[in-house]
Design goal:
By secondary structure, the chain is an alpha+beta fold. The protein has helices spanning 19-22, 48-59, 74-83, 97-101, 104-117, 145-154, 163-178, 198-204, 239-255, 261-279, 285-304, 315-325, 337-340, and strands at 6-9, 37-41, 44-47, 126-131, 137-142, 157-160, 190-193, 213-215, 218-224, 231-237.
């Protein structure tokens, strides 16, 4: 029998999370996992408990895990808040991203306590309709901003060895969520073939390359290593997110184009370094170089518009300024062998 790797990507569309995610109860016998966390990719906090869960599952194939709530810690909630669109309209509660950010630490501590004590209750979402390209209308729910944070923190990807297991889990998850008046968003829930054997299996069936999926700011791609042709998980910055960040920086530069060059340089250095701290993973060097180059061009246009003298500024001179202020792209994170079991 051929082995296949299946990835089921599910993101909750609206409302309160399923009960197994919010009930505060002791783990079943054998599920003693630690909750210490270690920072790996900037905003993304990987729990040591994930490795212990994996080890426990290998020791006992019949072990059932009843509680994974300990992975929803304050750092994960903070990352979920930062991943939301700051310019999005206020939620049904009228609170904007900026307003919620005032006193953010205290708010997240309270939210974390509510989730783990079982006191968290999602507010009712506002139903609205938006037109589709085919003339029909699509319903969407406008949630409160705090509920969006919780949804994003829970926003998961599951991997299965066999297709039958993935199909069964998706069916059971749909039923489980239905008990709480929730449903899987059809446009945001996918069952795809992904992993070490995906390309070979699809080729044998006369199908194209394995599908990709977006998660945590990266597009995940089935690739191969140059040296031996074996499977490699390739992660690249989501194109839409990369373009959005460049546009945001460009607009900010225009608003502050008359500030001193050293002040602009220090700000750009922090922006670019912060971007690299998260996205500088193996295989993503091209996207990092693109980001740095585009930021340099945006800065050049800004300086050229400051005065008549600025119009004589060349790209060669601009590159010298960039070497002084803008970090160069380099990989900052190791390849996640253990996390993805490849």
């Amino acid at each position: 029998m051929k082995r296949t790797n299946k990835g089921a990507q599910s993101r909750q569309g609206r409302g309160q999370p399923p009960a197994e995610f919010v009930e505060k109860r002791p783990p079943a016998e054998g599920n003693r996992v630690q909750t210490a966390v270690t920072s790996t990719q900037g905003l993304e906090a990987a729990s040591i408990g994930l490795n212990r869960v994996r080890e426990a599952a290998k020791r006992d194939k019949d072990l059932s895990f009843t509680n994974l709530l300990h992975h929803i810690d304050i750092e994960r909630l903070h990352a979920a808040y930062l991943s939301l669109n700051p310019k999005a309209a206020a939620g049904v509660d009228g609170v904007t991203w900026q307003e919620y950010g005032e006193g953010l630490d205290e708010r997240l501590i309270t939210l974390h306590d509510q989730i783990h004590s079982g006191r968290y209750r999602a507010r009712a979402s506002k139903r609205t309709w938006i037109p589709k390209s085919d003339g029909r209308q699509r319903p969407i729910g406008i949630a409160a901003l705090e509920d969006k944070i919780v949804q994003q923190a829970f926003d998961f990807v599951l991997g299965f060895q066999y297709q039958s297991d993935a199909v069964r889990f998706q069916s059971e998850l749909r039923k489980r969520m239905g008990k709480f008046g929730l449903e899987l968003h059809e446009d945001k829930t996918r069952l795809i073939e992904f992993g070490r054997f995906a390309a070979e299996n699809r080729k044998s069936r006369g199908e194209g390359k394995p599908e990709t999926f977006d998660f945590l700011g990266f597009t995940h791609i089935c690739s191969t290593r140059r040296k031996d042709g074996k499977f490699k998980l390739l992660r690249k910055t989501i194109g839409k997110r990369l373009r959005s960040k460049i546009k945001e920086v460009r607009q900010t530069l225009q608003r502050h184009r008359h500030k001193p060059v050293p002040e602009q340089g220090r700000w750009l250095r922090s922006v670019v370094q912060g971007h690299f701290n998260y996205y500088a993973v193996p295989g993503n060097r091209e996207a990092l170089d693109t980001f740095r180059t585009q930021i340099g061009h945006a800065w050049l246009r800004t300086l050229r518009r400051r005065s008549q003298k600025g119009r004589n500024l060349t790209w060669a001179r601009m590159q010298r300024q960039m070497m002084k202020w803008i970090p160069t792209a380099r990989v900052l994170h190791p390849y996640p062998n253990q996390r993805f079991c490849v």
